[in-house]
Specification:
single chain; seven-stranded antiparallel sheet; four-stranded antiparallel sheet; globular; oxidoreductase activity; Split_barrel_FMN-bd; Pyridoxamine 5'-phosphate oxidase family protein; Pyridox_Oxase-rel
């Protein structure tokens, strides 16, 4: 179960709150982008960063001279948000139009991973998450590159999850309005691979479908083509 603190208690749309740790993990693993809050010298900022999860920790990385990472290294309190947009909800009234989404908020402070061997392990896990088997083929990071890379970690000890998937919620007085109502889904599609020009036709394309499941690109006919198909 997720933590239940004053900061993670969802008040607006409380019926959308989800408390399973698995749902938190799924949102982070699918998103891989965290919007991170920081109180900078010129005021508050929110910066999107690549982020990945290993067990109950979330990691971000960047250059040693990154202004964002310099601030987070001081263990200043921060907030990470992950959002997946799943579709528009189109109602019979303008007021009740809304959206389907999955979101997660992580609160806490970052710590620094200094050991280069551990950095290498965690960065390689990230590569394997997005492209399984790739660390067996590419040149891995050397000591100079690892030393130049800042790697920070934050635990998933204080987090909340909110999922909106409620469908159309029209007022009873609007039910007879003759306008289409329903959900306009959004789906993230991964692929197909785009080869660099100098390798075109020379190196076989890898298969990373296992990392993306149903989100992997499928070369299927469009609806218009399906309408013209005949079946025996």
């Amino acid at each position: 179960m997720l933590s239940n603190t004053k900061r993670t208690t969802i008040k607006k749309g409380a019926h959308k709150a989800v408390f399973e740790q698995e749902k938190l993990h799924q949102i982070i693993d699918e998103s891989l982008i965290a919007h991170i809050a920081l109180q900078g010298e010129q005021g508050p900022m929110v910066i999107p960063m690549l982020a990945w999860r290993v067990d109950d920790m979330v990691y971000i990385h960047g250059a040693k001279n990154s202004r964002l990472l310099k601030g987070l290294k001081k263990r200043e309190p921060t907030c990470l948000t992950f959002t997946l947009f799943d579709g528009w909800v189109l109602a019979r009234s303008a007021f009740h139009h809304s959206a389907h989404y999955r979101s997660a908020v992580v609160l806490g402070s970052f710590s620094v991973i200094d050991d280069n061997q551990e950095k290498d392990r965690l960065l390689n896990i990230f590569i394997e998450q997005i492209a399984p088997g790739r660390t067996n083929e590419v040149r891995l990071s050397n000591e100079k590159e690892l030393t130049a890379t800042e790697l920070l970690a934050i635990p998933l000890t204080e987090a909340s999850v909110k999922i909106g998937k409620h469908g159309v919620n029209d007022d009873s007085t609007d039910m007879n309005i003759p306008v289409w109502a329903g959900v306009l889904p959004y789906r993230t599609v991964v692929g197909p691979l785009e080869t660099v020009p100098e390798q075109e036709g020379l190196i076989k394309k890898p298969d990373y479908q296992q990392a993306y499941g149903e989100r992997w690109y499928q070369d299927a006919p469009h609806d218009s083509e399906l309408n013209n198909m005949t079946y025996s």
